[in-house]
Amino acid sequence: MSTTKKIAGAALAAALGVTTLSACGGDAKDKTAGASDAPKSKTVTLVSHDSFNVTDAVLKEFEQQSGYTVKRLKAGDAGAALNQEILTKGSPRGDVFFGVDNTLLSRALDNGIFTPYEAKGLAGVKPEYVLDKEHRVTPVDSGDICVNYDKAYFAEKKIAPPQTLDDLIKPEYKNLLVTENAATSSPGLGFLLASVGKYGEEGWKDYWSKLKANGVEVVDGWEQAYNERFSGSAGGKKAKGDRPLVVSYASSPPVEVLYGEPQPAEAPTGVSTGTCFRQIEFAGLLKGAKNEEGGKALVDFLISKKFQEDMPLQMFVNPVTKDAALPELFTKHGVVIEKPENVAPETIAKNREQWVKAWTSLVVK
Question: Fewest Cβ atoms nearer than 10 Å: which of 106, 143, 152, 178?
Fold first, then answer.
């Protein structure tokens, strides 16, 4: 979430699923950080997606303990930002890049935009999230792209909400689902990858043919799908959305509670746990960083217990470290996705473009 692909405000910002970063060029002839005649900068720059957030007190504690001041740069979506980093490789605008996820990871690594660095505390990260054994990137958070459902709709119709991808092609769910375009949206791409993970490269097209025949609606992005077309969200209710199924995130129900006015005793939406694809977001020390030592300290901070426990209610994603506890809002109103669909980053890198083109021809055109 996408993304990678997040959630913001009462409407849930799409950032758990749309990762957004930005970078621009500097002087390719800059001296490398750490050179004997180069002054040591006390500012470290984090390039991140728009939904990166941290409690002021937590960030201030890091700055006081490390002696570095953190400058944050936000803009663009994951694909565009990654293109900028590739084009300016070796002369980055920042020191650390946060937000590249497992759908774009191989592309980032193949283009060599990161300097390997094994972060302090990496041993405390759950091993299933460490996808790069050369430590060019460090896992920071995870989030699950899943179908959400409107509890009130299914209770009123006396229909059990769908729980699996197979359920979504059944007649009782005809014309109920809205999803995002896989070519323009991180959650849309994640949902496509869930079908690839479930049915394989030979079976996912047949699944989407059946889903199309069952009336799936495709819109450009998460905001339109969740806050306009989905009947279960606060925004969707105001917009008179009539689709009780939407591709969103497993963390969406807790956020509906957090920002509900008045705050409901339980989430008005649920998660179809057998429809999910897991996004993992990473941070990496940018090659050519002007403050390499500060960048290393910042990467360490991103997997510290303090940041990992602050992160869920700031970005509505899950921690990746073993000792980080989830807030009560997540444990009470969220769900744990035990078996999300996964596709290897190298397989995504090899096939992503052709999958998206095939999906577009099959579903949109």
Answer: 152
pTM of the predicted model as reported, rounded to 2 decimal places: 0.82
Least confident of 12-26, 94-108, 240-254, 350-364: 12-26
At 360, the pLDDT band (50, 70, 90 cuts) reads: very high
Structure-token match 């957030």, residue found: 53
Q: What is the largest CA-CA distance in the chain?
A: 73
- The confidence band for 35, taking pLDDT boundaries of 50, 70 and 90, is very low
Q: Closest by alpha carbon to 78, among 103, 109, 53? A: 103
Residue 146 near residue 119, CB atoms below 8 Å: no
